[in-house]
Design the sequence.
């Protein structure tokens, strides 16, 4: 068994003058305090990567900087799926008795540490160096390709996709740490600048500074525990050129395995935290995971299904689209928010029931997937 | 050895050609060049030159580029094309292409490189 015993999250947006290590440290300190632990009790460290400050041994760089001497430490790199992949590994590490309290941490000054062009360029390198990158694609273009095909096959419209941006913004308005605080409408999304059609600016997550961390432990450290029920991965390709057909993408494989190992069915789920780098990502993943029928996710947004008071509250902090995206920490905020919801600490965002949560992360261009179920234990 | 499996020049090395590989053991096709078949592991897949004919699978028109060299070309259309031979590739395409269009490849200069560029087959 393993428990998420503490979480830490900075505001996302601009943290002028903060380094990636500063942001990681701040989040780590919050998470360890939240778990009621001393930093000397942390015996495992898993961290992601920073595109601003790349290093071949980031986990030990962080551990030294933070002032701990873990018995187990290394970095993990699975793009946007890194946060949940680290959580999955931490779960197995504590179950196997390798470590007692694993600190999972991500943080990056991606917004102020480099130009936006540098970020876009660095991320485009997930493409094939010989067969894709010379064509000048961007991450939005890779997802734009997928969006065009998905819209073609399932009759999804640009207005449908816009609904997801509007929903995430509505949620972000209720979180003081979110990068964006101005409400938007479907018309605003439709009128926003074209980036990589059919995706427009408001279909895309921003570049942010921020940090997130959590502690994964063998036993609960507080009365309301959040237990990892089960998790699974799937990796079908790296490059969008080599992606399988839409009906064979990794989300469906990962969720099927996660359901099998945890004994959870989709109707059991009360809260959802799903990767949302672009509106199309969220629309597709919700449908791949079985949280909506094919081509029906937008209608469920319109009916309030995914709102705070709906049947399946989704990314109540605002997601990558509106809370912000600082790289590895980006999707870790989804887990932090899920933990706050499951422990009844989400304040004005609190949902009625978050007893069982489904989390899903995606890395690359729908290349790497991690699905995870969490359970509230009292 | 027939010698048919040595590397043929293609657009990735500056030649006006699209090349793919065909496994002599299992018949699988692959576009990304390797010294083995990614489906069955057999060595030395045969290199073949594609006709340049295909069908548009997906499109995304880039309106926001990240370098001065690519910015000079916006908007440019990134396309995934299912080649008539049976493999999928990424390329550029005319801005009016739609999914399902029958297309044929020519070659164009883009940001100092030669790239494949698809246009509709004239009927």
Sequence:
């Amino acid at each position: 068994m393993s428990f998420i015993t503490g979480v830490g999250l900075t505001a996302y947006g601009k943290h002028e003058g903060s380094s990636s290590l500063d942001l990681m440290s701040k989040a780590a300190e919050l998470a360890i305090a939240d778990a009621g632990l001393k930093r000397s009790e942390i015996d495992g460290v898993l961290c992601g990567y920073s595109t601003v400050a790349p290093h071949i041994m980031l986990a030990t760089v962080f551990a030294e900087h933070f002032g701990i001497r873990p018995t187990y430490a290394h970095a993990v790199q699975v793009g946007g799926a890194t946060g949940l992949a680290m959580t999955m590994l931490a779960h197995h590490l504590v179950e196997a008795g390798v470590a007692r309290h694993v600190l999972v941490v991500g943080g990056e000054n991606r917004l102020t540490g480099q130009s936006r062009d540098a970020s876009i360029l660095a991320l485009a390198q997930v493409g094939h160096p010989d067969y894709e990158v010379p064509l000048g694609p961007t991450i939005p273009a890779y997802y734009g390709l997928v969006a065009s095909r998905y819209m073609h096959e399932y009759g999804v419209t640009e207005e449908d996709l816009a609904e997801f941006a509007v929903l995430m913004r509505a949620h972000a308005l209720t979180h003081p740490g979110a990068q964006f605080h101005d409400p938007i409408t479907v018309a605003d999304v439709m009128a926003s600048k074209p980036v990589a059609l059919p995706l427009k600016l408001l279909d895309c997550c921003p570049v942010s500074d921020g940090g997130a961390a959590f502690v994964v432990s063998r036993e609960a450290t507080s009365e309301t525990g959040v237990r990892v029920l089960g998790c699974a991965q799937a990796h079908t390709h790296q490059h969008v050129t080599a992606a399988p057909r839409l009906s064979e993408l990794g989300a469906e494989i990962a969720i099927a395995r996660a359901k099998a190992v945890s004994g959870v069915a989709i109707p059991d789920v009360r809260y959802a935290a799903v990767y949302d780098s672009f509106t199309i990502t969220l629309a597709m993943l919700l449908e791949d995971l079985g949280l909506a029928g094919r081509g029906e996710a937008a209608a469920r947004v319109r009916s309030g299904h995914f709102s705070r008071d709906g049947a399946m509250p989704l990314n109540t902090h605002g997601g990558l689209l509106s809370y912000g995206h600082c790289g590895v920490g980006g999707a870790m905020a989804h887990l932090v928010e899920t933990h706050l919801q499951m422990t009844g600490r989400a304040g004005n965002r609190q949902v009625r029931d978050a007893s069982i949560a489904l989390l899903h992360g995606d890395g690359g261009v729908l290349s790497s997937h991690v699905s995870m179920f969490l359970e509230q234990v009292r | 050895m027939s010698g048919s499996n040595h590397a043929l020049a293609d657009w990735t090395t500056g030649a006006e050609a699209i090349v793919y590989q065909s496994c002599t053991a299992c018949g699988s096709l692959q576009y990304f060049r390797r010294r083995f078949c990614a489906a069955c592991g057999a060595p030395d897949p045969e290199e073949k030159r594609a006709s340049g004919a295909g069908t548009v699978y997906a499109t995304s028109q880039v309106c926001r580029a990240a370098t001065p060299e690519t910015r000079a070309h916006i908007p440019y259309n990134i396309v995934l094309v299912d080649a008539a031979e049976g493999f999928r590739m990424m390329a550029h395409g005319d801005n009016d292409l739609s999914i399902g269009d029958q297309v044929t490849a020519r070659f164009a200069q883009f940001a100092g490189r030669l790239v494949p560029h698809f246009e509709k087959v004239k009927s």
